[in-house]
Design brief:
The protein has 275 residues and is mainly beta. The chain has a single domain, classed as PK beta-barrel domain-like (M1 Pyruvate Kinase, Domain 3, Beta Barrel), CATH 2.40.33.20. The protein is built from four helices and 19 strands. Strands 1-14-13-17-16-15-19 form a seven-stranded mixed barrel. The chain is globular and about 55 Å long.
Length: 275
Amino acid sequence: MARMLVGTVASLWRYPVKSMLGEKLDAVEVVEQGILGDRAYALWDKQTSRVASAKNPKKWAKLLEFQAAYVESPQTQEAMPAVQFALPDGSSTTSDATDINTTLSQVLGRQVQLLSSVPEAPSLDQYWPDVAGTAHQDKVTQLFMPPGTFFDSCPIHLITTATLARLQELYPAGQFEPCRFRPNVLIEPAIADITFVENDWVGGILAIGDRVRLSIDTACPRCVVTTLAQAGLPNDLNILRTTAQHNNVIAGIRTSVLQTGAIRLNDPIWLEQPA
């Protein structure tokens, strides 16, 4: 097994509530299910009996105007602390407020329920815009989520600054900020190069810091969420169009947990691959 240093941890994110803006952290705890507290909550659309997701922006783009953060750090997977919501109008509330479902429903204009446990066979609606390189064009499809989770697919998503820099080079007018891609870990490569470097890592293992080891399961195909207005960024369909035209709609990698532990800012990252 060949092992090489490929980078360091540049930043870390956790998203307490699915499709809302999350928390930028100095350290995270990796458990078997992913980063502790990541996507522990979600909203349930009572009309469709599906999980609310900005992947269907005609209904749920406003979710990206909410900021969600834990009132205290999670300690165990079984008992999540309350979440504080910063609402689009500047007010705030918490997940344990007696009127939380009413408040969220009024802001979103749809009847929703805040969930902290995953329903059986969870799914969401996903809109595919008309850009070259996507499997569907201008359609809404149903995406079934991994059982027992509010993830779209993988537990932990990573992307390199090199990939973002390459996309920026290809489309200089775009704003390829990390938040558009909602990674858990942003990697600063060991070798400065403006390229889609992590494409070649798929099938290997990332060893991060002292203990954490992640299986690199697949490259990460992007969706309409990268194009939506969020965190001061404008709507821009060319973000996804550029990714589709120049890297087969891929940006980043999807991983699962082989070994648990803590990840901290500036931790070294090694890639292990068959020799």
